Amino acid sequence: MEGAGNWLGLLKWSLAQTSDGTVPSEITPMTEEDKKWLEQVMRECVKDEPKRMNEIMGIFVKMLEEGLTEDKSEEVIELLDELQFMVEQVDMAGVFAKFGGFQCLLGLVESENLTAEARAMAGSTLAALSQNNLEVQEIVFKSGMLDRLAKVYIKSESVLLCNKVLYAISCSIRNHAAAEEYFVLHFAEATLPKAIAAASLVDSNSEAAAGTEALTSRALFLCNALVMSDFTNHARVQKLSALVLPVCLEYLKHESINLRETTQNLLTAIEKHKGPDHAPLMIM
C-alpha cells in the first residue's frame, strides 16, 4: 500500500511516546496547533522506508560499479546498520528482495577490498532478510546465492566473516526443504567440520576464543537444525554424523557451558533418529 512505510514509521514513533498503560491517560481533542505539529513530524521525522531502502541500494550499486576500496568500509557499515533495522520487518524484507537488493549485499560480502567487519555486516544483513521468511529464502535458493556464500566462507580465513556468512547460509536454508538438502549434499562437508573444529584450535583464554566459540556454536546449531528438520531423512543424519561427530565430541568437556549444551543437544537429536525403523548410525 502506498505510504505504508510512512505510517509504519509514525506508529513506531507514536508507541515510543505513549505510556505503558499502567496509569490513566487523559484524552482530549487535537488542537490546530497539535495538528500542525503532527504534520511537521510526518514531514521531518518519519521515514518512507521503502524509498530509503531503494536509495541505499542505489548507493551500493554505485559503489560496486565504481569499485570498492577499504576506505569505504565505514560508510558501508553505517548504511548497513540503517538497512538492517528496516529489513528485520518481514514485509520490508520482501520489498527489499523484490528490489534486487540481495545482489548488492552479496557484492559487498564478496568484495575483498572491504574490511572483514564490513563484509561480515553485509552477511548479517542477508541473514536478517532471510530468517523465517520463506518467500525470501526461495529467492536466495533459486538465484544460486548459496553457492556464492559458500564460496566466500570456504575461501575466507577471517573468523568474523566466516561466522556471519555461515549465519546467512543458516538463515537462508532452515525450514526450506530444497535449500536444506542442497546444502547438505554440496556444502556441508566443506563448511561444518571447519567451523565446528574452530573452537578447539585456540586457547580458551585467548582473545580469539570468543570469536571461534561463536563460529563453532553456530555450526553446531545449524547441524542440529538440519538433523531435527521436518525434511530430514536417515541418509542426511548419517552424513552429518560422520562429518561432525569426530570433531565435536571433545566439547562435551569444554569450559564453555554453551558449547557443552549445544553439543549435547546435537547428540540427542542424532540419537532420536536411531529408532527401530532406522539402521544404526555409523561414524566413519
Automatic annotation (TrEMBL):
TM helices/strands, residue ranges: none
Q: What InterPro entries does this protein's entry cite?
A: ARM-like, ARM-type_fold, Hsp70_NEF-Inhibitors, Nucleotide_exch_fac_Fes1
Q: What is an example of a GO molecular function annotated in this UniProt entry?
A: adenyl-nucleotide exchange factor activity
One Pfam family from the record: Fes1
Name one cellular component (GO) term. endoplasmic reticulum
Signal peptide annotation: none
Q: What is this protein called?
A: Nucleotide exchange factor Fes1 domain-containing protein
